[in-house]
Amino acid sequence: RLRLEQALTESDALRAEKEQLEQMRGKIGSAAADSFGPSFTDRVMAGIDAIDPAESEEEQFATSLISLFRPVAAVAAAAVIVLAVWNIKTTGSISLESAFALEQESVEVIWQTPFDELLRDPS
To answer: Using one digit for the tens of pLDDT, what is the confidence trace for 85-103?
Structure first.
């Protein structure tokens, strides 16, 4: 402390710097008190309460799948409609079978299982 007092009495530059530091300390002290109003903590806590809790990884994965599925579903539905219209135009027949390019099958063929053929005697 004695060396500091001696240096300050000997140097005008050190005295000017000390005065400048004391002025800055005073400005900082008064500015900090003025910058935070009386309801500062209430506003900060309300902001923290408004933040949603962090989602788990599973919730984030499900959310990303849902957001990805919507545009893919819309494009797929449009593609199905375009293909159905194209199939109807090329076949010249307006029916469900022609829209989805299905062959006209009889009820017997549709209900016949592939296991019937496997169970037959190969001889």
So the answer is: 888 888 887 777 777 777 7
Least Cα distance to 101 among 89, 87, 90 occurs for: 87
Q: How far apart are CA 103 and CA 109, in angstroms?
A: 11
- pTM: predicted TM-score of the whole model, two decimal places: 0.37
Kindly report the number of other CB atoms within 10 A of residue 75's CB atom. 10
Best CA proximity match to 31, nearest among 39, 43, 23: 23
Q: What is the 3-state secondary structure (H, E, C) of 92-113?
A: CCCCHHHHCCCCCCCHHHHHCC
Distance between CA 103 and CA 113 in Å, rounded? 17
- DSSP H helices in the chain: 2-10, 12-35, 40-50, 57-91, 96-99, 107-111, 114-119
Write the single-letter amino acid at 102.
Answer: L
Angle at the Cα of 99 from the Cα atoms of 93 and 103, rounded to 5 degrees: 80
